[in-house]
Structure formats: C-alpha cells, structure tokens
Amino acid sequence: MFTGIIEAQAEVVAIRDEQANRHFTLRCPFTQELKIDQSVAHNGVCLTVVAIEDSTYTVTAIAETLSRTNLGQLKPGDKVNLERCLLANSRYDGHIVQGHVDQVGICEEVTDQQGSWLFRFSYQPQAAGNVTVEKGSICVNGISLTVVESGADFFSVAIIPYTYEFTNLHTVKPGDQVNLEFDIIGKYVARLLQK
C-alpha cells in the first residue's frame, strides 16, 4: 500500500525486452536501501525489485501492466516518480493508493496560475466505475492529488510549486499520457451502485 507522496525520482538507465516482458533498470537516491522482492511504485505502478547492482536496480513490467500504463513509453534518461511501500508506523499524508493503475489519461491543458499550475486531464470512462468528484482524491503518475473540477470524462488538479518541482509533472505537456489510479473507496461505491 502507498500514499501517493513521492519520495524521489529515478532515472531510467536501461530498458530490455524479454518476450512480452519489459525490464527497466533505474538509478535513484535510495538504491542501496532497496532489497530484492521489495515493492516500489513507479509513476504509481507497483513493481517488484528483481535485481540490484551497484547504484542501479531492475524491475519488470508484464504485458498487462504495459497495456494499462504509460510505462511502455519510457526511454533511457526519463524520470520516474518513486514511492516505497507505507510503513505500519508512518504518517498517512496522502490517500489510500494501491499501486494498481486503472488506465492512462491524456493531459489536455496546463495553465500557469501565477505561482501554481492547473492541469486538466481527460480519460475514457470505464464500466469499472472510474469516477472523480470535486475535492476527492486521484493519483496521477503516483502522486496523490485533490480534484478541482470533475466531469464525466475529465478532471483538473491544482499543483503547488513543490509538487511541480519535485515530481515529473513539470515534464508533462498537452498530449502526454499519465497513469491514473482512481480512489479505491469511490470505485467500490460506484460498483455497489451499479448493482
């Protein structure tokens, strides 16, 4: 389980395909603290550490993960938002994030608000109940954010300077894909209402 509070960014240093799987080798400030089998959220996608060598580590994404996320678009040099699993004795600063991306969204607009930024994202409504509500939670590239405006197939979020600078949101521009994990409680409620 995660909270959507980004700890650091990793740099993709190598990518290798093996059958339908894709292995990503990354470098981050806390590589030496990682261990094999540890779960780490990469742009909000929970992946398992499968190898550690010197200052880099490797994770593997299967075809299902690549089809639902923006990880397949990564290339060497790209920056990825990272969060390690929640510790049982930690503060709960974000919201409940599973690291299970529901779908990708498209950045439609980025507006400079003179000290903050307003991002508008669109997404394909899904039968699984992927919905947003104003002042509710949404996870974008692994970042816990509050919804400003909510529609049937879009939402907007306001980004403070700290989040803009210390996550990969500052690289997102109109037309780019982002990973979306909708609020788990909202998904359960939507599913119950469909019955």
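Above is the first protein from milestone M3; the second protein from the same milestone is given next.
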Amino acid sequence: MERISPDKWYQTRRLDDGVTAISEPFIQEFYRCNIWHVRGRDRDMLVDSGMGVVSLREWVPLVTEREVIAVASHTHFDHIGCHHEFECRAVHSAEADLLANPTRANTLADPYVTDEIFDALPPEPYCSKCYGVKKAAATRILEDGDVIDLGDRTFDVIHTPGHSPGGIALWEAKTETLFSGDILYDGPLIEDTYHSNAADYVASMERLLTIPVHVVHGGHFPSFSGERYRALITDWLKNKQKKM
C-alpha cells in the first residue's frame, strides 16, 4: 500500500465561529476521527487529537500558535493519539485511567487497527501491529457541569456515557453549538464496545434531546444542523422503544 508523507497526512478546513476541522483523509471515513480546533481570546481548545500516527504539533501549525487545552471526548484510539503532545490535557474522570494507561485493548486499537482501515498508510516506520496510544495523564479532570473557559467563549461539559463511560459533549450556549463526540454523529453509531452501556446510552440521548442545538460537530462524519440532530435522536429513541 502507498505511504503518505507527513506533510500531506492532515487536512484543515475553517468553518464559522472560529472552528477549524482537522482530519486524516487517508483513514477510511468510519474510523476517521474529527479533530476540532476552536479559537478563543485567551487560549484555544482542541477537541480530540486523532490516531497519533503523524504528529499534530509538527505538521499542523494551527495547534501550536497559542496556548491550547486538548480535550478528550473519550479515550478510544482514534480520538487521543496525539494528546501526549499537549501540555494541558482534559478528560472525564471515568476515563482518566485509560488516558494515563492506554493499551491496545482498552483503547480499542485491538482489534480495529489494521492496514485495512487506511486507504494509504502513514509514513514509515508506522506499523499497524505495533501501533499503540502513548501515555498522556490528564492535567485536568472533568465532571458533568464543568466549564472550559477560553476567555470570550465558554463550553459546558455534558457527561454522555453510553458509547463509553467517560464520554462527554461540549455545549456553547451562546452559539448553540455542540461538540458531541461519539455519542451522536450522522452515521452508524457504535453501541457495543467492551465498556458501552445501553441504559446509559438511552439516558444520554434523552438528555441531549432537551438541548436547543443549532449546529453539531460530531466525533465522525460531517457536521449537521439542529433539525437533523433532533431527528437523529428521536429516530434512535423510537427504535430502542420498539425493541423493548
């Protein structure tokens, strides 16, 4: 399989409201995490950090321009691979141990990370069988209701267990923007990981439905509108009720 040089590994796309989408286009879409950079007055925020197969700090200058807090929406391999590169790292308390002590199993790198998840491979010496997330103990432990303050922007932490025990979403009421992580995105949701919980998933979806969202930036797949957000949650909950 073709190898991609590090300078071509990442793509960036500036959106509205100081948000930049960073992606790894050579990872197949289902496995490709959305990395979100949010510009603030006093510091910036990075929501998730990708697989870590190519350095974010070295090859995406945007993330080094100012002080940044790297937030983990949860601790699966595709979301925390570059967290070790950042001085300030935040994660929910329920998954702090995973960020500090990642393994191939507890981050889901085993069984998902194989050459087959790539359309082209990262530069040498990358090896799928050797891949693992590096340790990156949190410098800030998050709980439901905490606030991440960027100076002129504040994001409320919403604990959204279900996909994983320490999943979080980040809500900016001023712009009605939600960074939803992997609890909800516009694609096939994963509800059966080793630490998923069906009852928690339902409770999280019911809670999210009460939030007056205008735009959603999910953990995977393209961003979508508040109308689509409400339709996705409503349909998901209806399907769950039919199976009860």
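Note on the second protein: The radius of gyration is 17 Å.
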